[in-house]
Amino acid sequence: MVARILTVVFCVTLLIGCTSQTIQIPQSAQNPANPSAPEAAFTPRPDWFRTDTSVSPEKPATELTPPPGTLTTTPAIYTCPMHPEVIQSSQGRCPDCGMRLIPKEPP
């Protein structure tokens, strides 16, 4: 009985002693969590799927045209989905954001 009590007291004392100490794990010089680690050089990811369609007032973007012989009924007013204040009489791109203009619904 006394052996059990002494074992429990010893284990509790050992556990209390272990919890009061913090062990510092050394960090390598290359670890990002280390404040003295050097910064890595920025390398941009390659954009294989990106297309160069820059929209500028000097160079308007090319638009898809329907095949010849296709009858199309075009409404007279086109607008930008993001900027409804942009209104044009022909298809094109928004001068603010570059989105394709869509036909405006009649009221």
Topology:
Layout: H1 2-19, E1 78-79, E2 87-88, E3 102-103
Antiparallel strand pairs: 1-2, 1-3
Explain the overall architecture.
The chain is mostly helical and 107 residues long. The chain has a domain at 73-107. Helix content is 17%, strand content 6%. It has one helix and three strands, in the order αβββ. It has one helix at residues 2-19; strands at residues 78-79, 87-88, 102-103. Strands 2-1-3 form a three-stranded antiparallel β-sheet, with no helix packed on it. The longest helix has 18 residues, at 2-19. The termini are far apart.
**In which order are the strands of the major sheet placed?**
2-1-3
| Residue runs with pLDDT of under 50 for 5 or more positions | none
Rounded mean pLDDT is 76
Task: Spell the H/E element sequence.
Answer: HEEE
* Overall helicity: 10-25%
Termini, distance in Å?
93 Å
Number of helices: 1
Q: What is the percentage of strand-forming residues?
A: 5-15%
Q: Count all strands and give the number.
A: 3
- Shape designation: elongated
Overall SS class: mainly alpha
The largest sheet, given as strand count, sense and whether it forms a barrel, is: 3 strands, antiparallel
Rg calculated over all Cα atoms = 35 Å
